[in-house]
From TrEMBL, chain B:
Source organism: Paractinoplanes tereljensis
Protein name, per record: YCII-related domain-containing protein
Tree of life domain: Bacteria
Signal peptide bounds: none
SUPFAM superfamilies: Dimeric alpha+beta barrel
UniProt similarity note: Belongs to the YciI family.
Amino acid sequence: MSDVHRTIDAVWKLESARIIGGLARLVHDVGLAEELAQDALVAALEQWPAAGVPDNPGAWLTTVARRRAVDHIRRSRTVPLPLTEPSAPEQDDVLRLIFVCCHPVLPAAARIALTLRLVAGLSNAEIARAFLLDEPRVTRRIAAAKQTLADEGAGFTRPDAEALAGRLSSVLEVLYLVFNEGYAATAGDDLIRGDLCREALRLGRMLAELVPAEPEVHGLVALMELQTSRSAARIGPAGELVQLQDQNRGRWDPLLIRRGFAALLRARETGKPPGPYVLQAAIAVCHAQAPTAAETDWPRIAKLYDALAQLQPSPVIRLNRAVAVGMAYGPEFGLTEADALLADPALRDYHLLPGVRGDLLARLGRPAEARREFERALTLTRNGPEQQFLQRRATEMTALLATAPPSEPAADPHSPAAPDPATAPSSPGSGALPPGSPPAGAGDGGSADGVDGPAGRVGTVDPAATLGVVAGAFLGRADLDVATVRSYRQTVTRLRRALGDSLPLGLLTAETVATVFATAWGSAAPKTWNRHRATLRSFGAWCGRSDLATGLARRAEVVSPVAPLPAADLATLFGDGRQALRERTLWCLLHESSAAVTAVLALDVEGLDLDDRRARVGGRWVAWRSGTARLLPELIAGRTSGPLFLTDRRPAPGAPGDRCPHTGRGRLSYERAEYLFKRATGHTLRQLRPTDR
Amino acid sequence: MRFLMMQKPTDTAPDQKLFAEMAAFVEELTAAGVLLATGGLEPGGVLMSSLGDEITVTDGPFAEAKEAAAGFALIEVGSREEAIELARRFRKIVGDGESTIQQVFG
């Protein structure tokens, strides 16, 4: 990159939000506004290297982009040309831009990508790098987000006072997600990705000036400033994670701590009740104020987590509360709180739950259990330094165990001579299921449940053998076909993740198994539950522990075919003038033709035989009746070729073909059609098919 | 990345217009979330020097006052170019003179 290019890049990062915001106010479409601003950027890239960087580069870009916007409005005449230059303050443009980028119609990942691109001025490549995604995926995500905003008519207005709180929380969530992705990188070798933290902080500080009366904004800024103040101390010399209590507090950044305090004071000065971010910032302040870890005011932190859990009953907050309680009142109290979370499905793959339990168990002098928890946590995180930390803790426990007598009860003593399941071959042909039987459905029938027949047994397994070893041997049997192993593996992997590979089989109880099942599949379909149950029974029989499945009741399977919608409702729906013509035609056609959704969406205008009320698509006929026939001419509206059902908006330049030659619009996608129907009726498109098909 | 921008003193006394423009600029940078801290510095100050075990304290003003800093701004941006771009805008406001930009490590 040349110097000029770097300067252009820098100017863009500093100015793009204001430029795009200003344009969006003119054209009422952020996607289009961004394209126009990009045009100006391209002009700069062409002109500045030769003509030199202008005196006021930001103003130059704004002027060029605005000129393009006015040209565009003249050409399209879709938006009335403003007679006078709109004179709303520029800051309001940026605020509106933030609100639109974090619009609730967008999924969280799209909000994040769009905010980083439009407000923070990051390129798709930079966003992809920051989130360890490939660039085309980010490009698609952003294009889809712009499309959704245009389709939804999200416009470019500031939410009114009533909607503000809800919309603001969506914005804060996006900023905090970006921050956390940077601060606690979920994957990769860097523990902290500073660029993301910096962007989130910058956007947060910016937002705090735009809506100064909102305490939660200041709370979030305070929280981010205080957490960032610790980032240098959080990484050890070898890149390893240093826990809060072991950090060198002298390396905490006093400037950021002071800024964090100041932001929290601003939140308090608004006089409004504290929200979740303010409370979390207050907790961070407790840490920042403690000169040493031992002087931390844990009872106060536990109280703040109490208040937080009242506002946000999330299991992660309850886990944090367990940590605080453990510190304030003793590890046994913390462990009680943490154990209560074991049955929470939301935490089943969350590495911090076993991490916290391991720590509490270690403090209670139960190193064998602690080691198991650390090893379990290890398998649940993808972050390199965190893995190293957990490995270190597990090794410490191993060292403790080597010097101390075993604290765990000896496993079943009467079978010391049992063969090691890792090496004991199971007799060929003695599989739990007959070879070739379908794996998924097999366990559902009554007969296949009878796996504990003598043929399926390998004998009693050494109870001191660990779950990991036994499970590995179970899956490694030579007599199972690939599909069965795949199906079995799902169940067994869940068990291993939930309980840890190093758990001796002798300590595995039916009760524990039942808890794991309830957490993992308690709310799953009965068929799924029964499949996993069948696997577990098979596993129990194989390793001589048929008792393991005693806590698992078989569930009745109810077959629920797609229920068609009542005809009266459909008649109302097809005649509902509030629904768009395209939607009504599509729905009516799907109902009358009974054709597959993909086939109907694949229809082209030139392929329609309006007189015979049919069209050929993919070698099959799609035929309709009077309802569709009434709607079709209006939908076609003079078009002679191209997709029958079109998107609302033109695709991005360079998007793949299959467009309408008249309007340049693309073909309506299945996902979009499904979404629109679901939003309008709460049902799925398949339910449009009549029963007597 | 953090950068420390420091400007050297000038002979011309600041007028009302400069004060107003500077205040607006500082506000804008704060609102943009890039300015962490800023301030003016007294001329001269105290010079501390150590030689062996001996530490000497000398009060200003000093002859090389022109080389000292008269004010600073600590900013947090994504690249050196962004820092330069901000400094460019700062220099346009304050007129003739010199600034330095140095990245802050750690």
